[in-house]
Amino acid sequence: MSTQSNPRPYGFIRPMDPTRDLNAVADLVEAAFELKNDPEGHLLIENMRQHARRLSDPDASFLDTLNARMSWADGLVWEDHGKVVGNITLIPHLDGFKRVTMIANVSVQDDYRRKGIAHELTLWGLRRCQASGVKEVYLQVRHDNASAIRLYADLGFHKLHSVSVWRLRNSRNAPKSAPTKANQDIKRRRYRDWRLQKAWLSEAYPRKTRWYAGLSFGALSPYSWFVPAYWAQMMQVEHFALRQENTLLGTLSWQRRMAQIDALLLTMPLELNEDDENERARALLSHFVNNFWDHAKVNLEYPMGHATQGIKDAGFTLVHDLDWMYLRI
After folding, report:
1. Residues with Cβ within 8 Å of residue 37, at least 6 apart in sequence
2. Which neighbouring-strand residues pair with 90?
3. Are 128 and 1 in contact, with CB atoms under 8 Å apart?
4. What are phi and psi of 42, to 5 degrees?
5. What is the pLDDT of residues 78-121, one digit of tens each?
6. I need a labelling partner for 28 at 20 to 30 A (CA). Which of 155, 175, 279, 287 fits?
7. pLDDT digits (tens, 9 = 90+) for 62-78
8. Full DSSP string of 164-205
9. How far apart are CA 113 and CA 109, in angstroms?
10. CA atoms of 80 and 170, how far apart (whole Å)
11. What is this structure's pTM?
12. Within a 10 A sphere around the Cβ of 129, how many other Cβ atoms?
């Protein structure tokens, strides 16, 4: 594949060059995804700009420069008269031993929208993946972004599932107590809870996109002590179980990620009625907030449309609803 597309009346595609494009790409992504008022999004943008400064610093060490290039080198930009007006980032991942690619940061400057630039960038990104031997490509798109969903569907992507992304940022919205119904209690998970928790995990966190979680789901098993490869992640995770007498109602797993944002995995049957799933989510999450939360940032992803009020009642704020989309090339 050529490194530069044929010039259009309004520009051309070329590989991203971190040494000169990072600041412009940061501006595009910040504007396209409205990250000015999103603290975590702002951190991503600032990280890009820090890398840009390192690359432009004549006193930067070789390792700093190499790290910056490796972090942001794989992508394409649309340039018009010397100005970057569009961008796509291609992020490599491993799903077991299989290489997959995540498409991210597809953004176009306002004045250049509705000219087919996002379509062309995505098409060229797919060609780049194919040329490198990658067979599976994934992306996340906001559930309410109908035009972007149509664009990806036209290119052959199909929807896998939808998730709501929730965040616990500060104590202002935290509940004062962790209410449970009569005869219910929350304690540490038992070994025998794993059979149901494993089944509920398969419903709430489909296997097709687990590679993106930053956690080997095998490490959630109480029997993973027999697998040394899981030990490091096991030490990061704590599990809680909600019971009514001897019946397991739901579980919550908390992954502490040190400098990164902590993650929660909530499980219960997805076929519950609305009141029951809200009550179970509220009880488990409130228990975590009141007894274990150290006011670090915490993320929770859960199937869209499920346990919404219960999660809000526990102090979480909805960040966005996302559709997972997939293409085999």
Report:
1. none
2. 103
3. yes
4. -65, -35
5. 999 999 999 999 999 999 899 999 999 999 999 999 999 999 99
6. 155
7. 776 666 666 666 899 99
8. EEEEE--STT--S-----TTEEEEEPPGGGHHHHHHHHHHHS
9. 7
10. 43
11. 0.88
12. 22
